[in-house]
């Protein structure tokens, strides 16, 4: 086995997704660094891999990194794995990869499953351009601010979300992006209860809120970007609409301006949603 640090992807649910190269590399390295050794032990036992195993995560002390480095310094090889999927994708390893590269060691990818790519591959939304946001902040206010920053992003948006926060997150997204924005819930990908459901934020919020089973397991949310063809309102209309919305509900303000200008009420309402909080 060539010396170097191997970043090895492992299955996100279905063991059949383990690549033969991943097995070969994990069986051949001198040391395996795992996010959670107990968790990874099950996967390694399945393939009868009993190479030396150590814990490595973002809060590991210097000794863990030194052990990896000294193995590489002696011309050995090390594999990094996380609990599931591709290491470094909302998982530990960034500092290790960077440090080993700056010390001149080879860092080699062994690609494979990752929930973000699996979800994109079945979402049925444009994937030519996407923005991966990982986990949103847990605090409602910070989360709303982050969503607001993404409101006018045209690229498809991908989020990881914890099951106990899924209803609150869909509600917050509906608030900020508008209830008509398309979203895909990709849950338990490659597992028994795999669910892929596309709808508007309003539809998906109702679906998830009314079914406790949809609030379980592992979840990726893929949200359509802001449509490029959305009407651009002239300065005067924007000002009028914003001023009216200070006095009236957004729906009423949109209806009045639509009456006076002949513009579509829905476009005006969407504009107001997009500037909400500005
Ligand atoms: N490194 C992993 C990867 O490449 O996908 C992601 C690790 S991150 C700590 C775990 C999150 O990924 C979960 O909370 C969930 O949002 C998503 N995830 C992982 N496996 C999944 C699956 N089978 N179905 C849906 N989402 C999954």
TrEMBL record:
The keyword rRNA processing applies. Residues 5-204 form the Tetrapyrrole methylase domain. Its EC number is 2.1.1.198. It catalyses: cytidine(1402) in 16S rRNA + S-adenosyl-L-methionine = 2'-O-methylcytidine(1402) in 16S rRNA + S-adenosyl-L-homocysteine + H(+). CDD domains: RsmI. Pfam families: RsmI_C, TP_methylase. Its main location: cytoplasm. The keyword Protein biosynthesis does not apply. SUPFAM superfamilies: Tetrapyrrole methylase. Keywords: Cytoplasm, Methyltransferase, rRNA processing, S-adenosyl-L-methionine, Transferase. GO terms for biological process: methylation. It is found in: Cytoplasm. InterPro entries: 4pyrrol_Mease, 4pyrrol_Methylase_sf, 4pyrrole_Mease_sub1, 4pyrrole_Mease_sub2, rRNA_ssu_MeTfrase_I, RsmI_HTH, SAM_MeTrfase_RsmI_CS. It comes from the Bacteria. Transmembrane segments: none annotated. HAMAP family: 16SrRNA_methyltr_I. Catalyzes the 2'-O-methylation of the ribose of cytidine 1402 (C1402) in 16S rRNA. This is Ribosomal RNA small subunit methyltransferase I. The gene is rsmI.
């Amino acid at each position: 086995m060539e010396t170097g640090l191997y970043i090895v992807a492992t299955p996100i649910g279905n063991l059949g997704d383990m690549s033969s190269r991943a097995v070969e590399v994990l069986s051949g390295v001198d040391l395996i660094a795992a996010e959670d050794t107990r968790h990874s032990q099950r996967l390694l036992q399945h393939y009868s891999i009993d190479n030396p195993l150590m814990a490595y995560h973002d809060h590991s002390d210097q000794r863990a990194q030194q052990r990896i480095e000294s193995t590489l310094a002696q011309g050995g090889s090390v594999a990094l794995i996380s609990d599931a999927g591709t290491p470094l994708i909302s998982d530990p390893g960034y500092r290790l990869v960077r440090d080993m590269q700056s010390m001149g060691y080879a860092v080699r990818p062994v690609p494979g499953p990752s929930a973000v790519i699996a979800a994109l591959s079945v979402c049925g939304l444009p994937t030519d351009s996407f923005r991966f946001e990982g986990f949103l902040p847990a605090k409602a206010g910070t989360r709303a601010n982050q969503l607001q920053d993404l409101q006018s992003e045209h690229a498809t948006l991908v989020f990881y979300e914890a099951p106990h926060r899924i209803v609150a997150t869909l509600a917050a997204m509906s608030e900020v992006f508008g209830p008509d924005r398309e979203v895909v819930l990709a849950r338990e990908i490659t597992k028994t209860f795999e669910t892929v459901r596309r709808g508007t934020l309003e539809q998906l919020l109702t679906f998830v809120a009314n079914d406790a089973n949809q609030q379980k397991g592992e979840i990726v949310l893929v949200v359509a970007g802001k449509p490029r063809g959305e009407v651009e309102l002239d300065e005067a209309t924007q000002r009028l609409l914003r001023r009216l919305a200070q006095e009236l509900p957004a729906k009423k303000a949109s209806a009045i301006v639509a009456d006076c200008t002949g513009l579509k009420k829905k476009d005006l309402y969407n504009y107001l949603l997009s500037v909400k909080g500005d």
